[in-house]
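Structure request: Regulator of microtubule dynamics protein 1, Steinernema glaseri.
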Amino acid sequence: MKTAQFVFRQFVKKYWTSTTRTFASPAGRRLLTGTAGGGSFLLSASFFSASPTGGYEVPKHEEVRNLDLIIKETDALYNNYLIDNAYAILRKHGSGTCSELLWRLARVVCEKAKLSKDKKEKEQLFMEAFAIAEKALKHEKPEGCFGAHKWYAIILDYVGEIEGTKSRIKKSYEVRDHLERALEINDSDATTWHILGVWHFTFADMPYYTRLAAKAIFGTPPSSTYADALKNFERAEFLQPNFYSTNTFYLAETYDRLGNKELALEYYKRAFLMPVVSADDAQIHQKAHDKLKKLGLTVADLIN
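Returned structure:
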């Protein structure tokens, strides 16, 4: 007989692990022009919004000279996946108190952790990124720092993964709170709405028997509804239409769970027909194809 821990671990592996990796990494950008190994980068599309702040006006920090220039340069390097180059600039500001630079440093250190092949180094880098994100929050201005909350939430989930399933699920409350705070500061960032949508869908979609197992392990596991998930996915799509095939697919999944089969079919079709420019897109393309096949549709039906 499967233990409660095993059942819940399988659920987390199926949903949480597969979804939370997509929002934090620009790695898919390397596939846009087939230059994963290096060379020039000409990005015609991206999962991320054109602006890392989603149109949010960065608060001024008078203690840092040329702040706007540093932000512009390091964001461009990050968006082109030149992580080491961005790190070389931002690490100089690690001892400072400018939250806008600190969360960007945390972001690139987080990316360096994901690129590391050494498990010990990977974990050390994630913990370093988390400490920097904590510092960014500590020094945020009264008006708040959108990026600090967003990346604290993202990196916190990695820390939970390092510490184990029980820690990760407990930290999910805090992950949600910081995503919501990020959106209070800047509600125009499509990717943050998508991440929060995934959070709500994950726990709304938890099977009853798994919920019982989780309750036995965690006492009061997080819970949500498909309506909450839909609100977030729709908001992301409104802000940046067709920005991410995964968001389109999640819209289909959520409509399906809510019993709106017509809209679910429409969004499964859209997800299938969206350009495949990254590894995430390829995975979603296949998932949408499998869903449509079960519904009796063929590729010819979709193309014609």
